[in-house]
From TrEMBL:
Heterotetramer of two alpha and two beta chains arranged as a dimer of alpha/beta heterodimers. This is S-adenosylmethionine decarboxylase proenzyme. GO terms for biological process: spermidine biosynthetic process. It comes from Candidatus Falkowbacteria bacterium RIFOXYC2_FULL_48_21. Catalyzes the decarboxylation of S-adenosylmethionine to S-adenosylmethioninamine (dcAdoMet), the propylamine donor required for the synthesis of the polyamines spermine and spermidine from the diamine putrescine. Pathway: Amine and polyamine biosynthesis; S-adenosylmethioninamine biosynthesis; S-adenosylmethioninamine from S-adenosyl-L-methionine: step 1/1. Keywords: Autocatalytic cleavage, Decarboxylase, Lyase, Polyamine biosynthesis, Pyruvate, S-adenosyl-L-methionine, Schiff base, Spermidine biosynthesis, Zymogen.
Length: 133
């Protein structure tokens, strides 16, 4: 592997507006998606906007997963950035797509930290637990 991470950028269209506006549902789906991808969760933060919309992030030892929602448009933007070989951002994507009842999506994967030689990267804190600072 000659790159440090995989960054999957996702646009989710025609999602269930009620789900996009449910901060608890989104937080749970994001945490479940991080775990399904094989990530180590370090912490999370989510915010519900008035009158609608949610932004949030799950920080993982291997990088992060974030989301921003526009319920009025049935749309969510997600970034799934993972480092190393052990975490699969596409597993996180599939779970989020299903949790939000997404009918149409567009995604792109970008390799981050590309080097002209093989690199062996280990997450900075693979045994981190939520609340460790």
């Amino acid at each position: 592997m000659n790159y440090l991470g995989r960054h999957v950028i996702v646009d989710l269209y025609e999602c269930d507006p009620d789900k996009l506006n449910d901060c608890d549902l989104i937080r749970n789906a994001m945490i479940e998606s991080a775990l399904a991808a094989g990530a180590t969760i370090v912490g999370d933060i989510f915010h519900h906007f008035a009158p609608q919309g949610v932004s949030g992030a799950v920080v993982i030892a291997e990088s992060h997963i974030s989301i921003h929602t526009w319920p009025e448009l049935g749309y969510a933007a997600c970034d799934l950035f993972t480092c190393g070989k052990s975490v699969d951002p596409w597993k996180a994507f599939e779970l989020l797509r299903e949790a939000l009842n997404c009918q149409r999506h567009k995604e792109q994967e970008i390799q981050r930290g590309i080097f002209p030689y093989a690199v062996e990267h280990k997450p900075p804190c693979p045994s981190a637990q939520a609340g460790d600072d």
